[in-house]
Write a structure and sequence with these properties.
By secondary structure, the chain is of the alpha/beta class. The protein has 9 helices and 14 strands. The chain starts with a strand and ends in an 8-residue tail after the last helix. It binds 3-methyl-2-ureido-butyric acid (CDV). GO terms for molecular function: hydrolase activity, acting on carbon-nitrogen (but not peptide) bonds, in linear amides.
Length: about 300
């Protein structure tokens, strides 16, 4: 028996620094509406989808930084998106910068949420693999200051029952790390949603630039196959404030095959009818974890952070 969910990968074109939340939310609602017209149950938006990708700028004034963060979710500016979800009967994943207070301490996370068709938040994730650096680095054409503006996520990788399946989330750089998916795979994940902002140029390793599209799909396709899960990868695309973001949003089946993709560099929706049951044969044969994993030999993965040559 199949368990079908129709998914939209809602890629966004560039967001200017001067764009208001209201302007961006209008674009998100237009994509959500398009999703409803195409029969989507849920659409996936990118990482930090409410603002420009602000970690490209070095800022010392915390008040200036905090302008890019959401103090509540939904807030006044984002409530219309939640209302639209309820009106159209389409859920969504969205990434945003979260400013919250925990035990009297102000915290900053790079966060995503999963919202159901009634506009209720049913899942949350805080980005764990924060790339980049914490101080201004002169040599870079643009900065990547996620390590300055965000704390490491504190939730692990929870999975949630939603839309008839088991859904997990991760954010951008997380998608390059096999541990991300295996943590969810071990909880039986059936669909991983991942929003991203990936510049084509990587200042520390410009020799990788020509491979950025290939690496983007390589990591998500292999993870889908190795964990018998759908992966929905959704980008911010195009030249944003002088920085080219790769785009390349895709819907990947548990076979590792791309079944739908965005082809442009602007706001665009790619839709696929996804059967959660498709992961079953992978999870029960070649990647039957219970039968074939050998965790007693995997100790170094959690014991050691960096590679150390001991021979
Ligand atoms: N937003 C990101 O996490 N971007 C990284 C870049 C810096 C390499 C990525 O993995 O795509």
């Amino acid at each position: 028996m199949s368990r079908i969910v129709t998914v939209g990968a809602a890629q966004l074109g560039p967001i200017a620094r001067s764009d208001t939340r209201t302007q961006v939310v209008e674009r998100l609602i237009a994509l959500l509406k398009q999703g409803s017209e195409h029969g989507c149950d849920v659409v996936v938006f990118p990482e930090l989808a409410l603002t420009t990708f602000f970690p490209r700028w070095y800022m010392e004034d915390q008040a200036e930084v905090d302008q890019f963060f959401e103090k509540s979710m939904p807030g006044t500016d984002t409530q219309p998106l939640f209302d639209a979800a309820r009106e159209y009967g389409v859920g969504f994943y969205i990434g945003y910068a979260e400013l919250t207070e925990q035990d009297g301490q102000v915290r900053h996370f790079n966060t995503s949420i999963l919202v159901d068709k009634s506009g209720e938040i049913v899942g949350k994730y805080r980005k764990i693999h924060l790339p980049g650096h914490a101080e201004h680095e002169e040599y870079r054409a643009f900065q990547h200051l996620e390590k300055r503006y965000f704390e490491t996520g504190d939730m692990g990788w929870p999975v949630y029952r939603a839309f008839g399946g088991i859904i997990g989330m991760c954010i951008c750089n997380d998608r390059r790390w096999p541990e991300t998916y295996r943590m969810m795979g071990l909880q039986g994940v059936e669909m991983v949603m991942v929003g991203y902002n990936t510049p084509r140029h990587n200042p520390p390793s410009p020799e990788h630039d020509r491979l950025s599209d290939f690496h983007n799909h390589l990591v998500m396709q292999s993870a889908a196959y190795q964990n018998g899960t759908w992966v929905i990868g959704v980008a911010k695309a195009g030249v944003e404030e002088g920085c080219e973001l790769i785009g390349g949003s895709v819907i990947i089946a548990p076979s590792g095959e791309i079944v739908a993709r965005c082809t442009g560099m602007g706001d665009e929706l790619a839709v696929a009818i996804c059967d959660f049951e498709m992961g079953h044969s992978y999870k029960n044969t070649i990647f039957n974890f219970e039968a074939h994993r050998e965790p007693q030999h995997y100790g170094l993965i959690v014991e050691r952070k960096g590679a150390k040559v001991t021979v």
